[in-house]
Write a structure and sequence with these properties.
CATH class: Alpha Beta
Distance between the termini: 23 Å
Strand order of the largest sheet: 3-2-1-4-5-6-9
Strand content: 15-25%
Order of helices and strands: EHEEHEHEHEEHEHE
Radius of gyration: 17 Å
Number of helices: 6
Structural class: alpha/beta
Shape: globular
Number of domains: 1
Largest sheet: 7 strands, parallel
Length: 195
């Protein structure tokens, strides 16, 4: 059983790979990345995987049974990139996709939500069993504002009168790897889930 992880050299994907290595043998993992040389230190097989080169995606997915699709980060391009991956995963015979979406993507008014909704719909229509893992705001995203937070003594966000709630990438990576590991032990047809 091979699990492929897209964006495996990114901030979340790298941690997911490390967490999966604690659960399964490294030779059952494939890092799917734009620049395989950046994945040298991960200790797993690395394959070139560029969301913007759809013709090469199916080849990179050969032999991958389960795919953890870490959301792309280019706003305005994500939906098309994700659809490329889903289509090529189907062609390659990937048996299940785990997707890192946005918290409450289907009801959120955030501008980022629309691309996740499109991706979730594409997954549902693909015929490939899937697990959608809806992530909230990463605590680390606030680090770019640290000087302002210290200066003003308050962390501001677009929560109106609500509180700001976030989670560490490590926590999300742990949950993602647990779900991918746990549900990879079930028959594919049993999993069409949203967390």
């Amino acid at each position: 059983m091979k699990i492929g992880v897209t964006g495996a050299t990114g901030q979340l994907g790298r941690i997911v790979i490390e967490k999966l290595k604690e659960k399964i043998a490294a030779d059952n993992l494939v890092a799917l990345v734009r620049k395989p040389e950046k994945a040298a230190g991960l200790g797993v097989e690395a394959r070139k995987f560029d969301y913007d080169q759809p013709d090469a995606l199916a080849g990179a997915l050969k032999g991958v049974d389960k795919l953890l699709l870490v959301s792309a980060n280019e706003i305005g391009k994500r939906a098309a990139q994700h659809i490329h991956v889903i289509e090529e995963a189907k062609q390659a015979g990937v048996g299940q996709i785990f997707y890192t979406s946005l918290l409450r993507a289907d009801t959120s008014t955030l501008g980022l939500a629309a691309e996740h909704v499109v991706t979730e719909k594409a997954l549902a229509e693909s015929g490939i069993p899937f697990v959608i893992m809806r992530h909230g705001w990463y605590t680390e995203n606030n680090m770019g504002m640290l000087d302002e937070v210290v200066s003003h003594g308050v962390l501001l966000g677009a929560a109106s009168e609500g509180k700001i709630s976030s989670g560490a990438r490590l926590d999300y990576a742990e949950a993602d790897s647990d779900l991918a590991h746990f549900y990879s032990n079930f028959p594919n047809e049993m999993t069409k889930l949203i967390f």
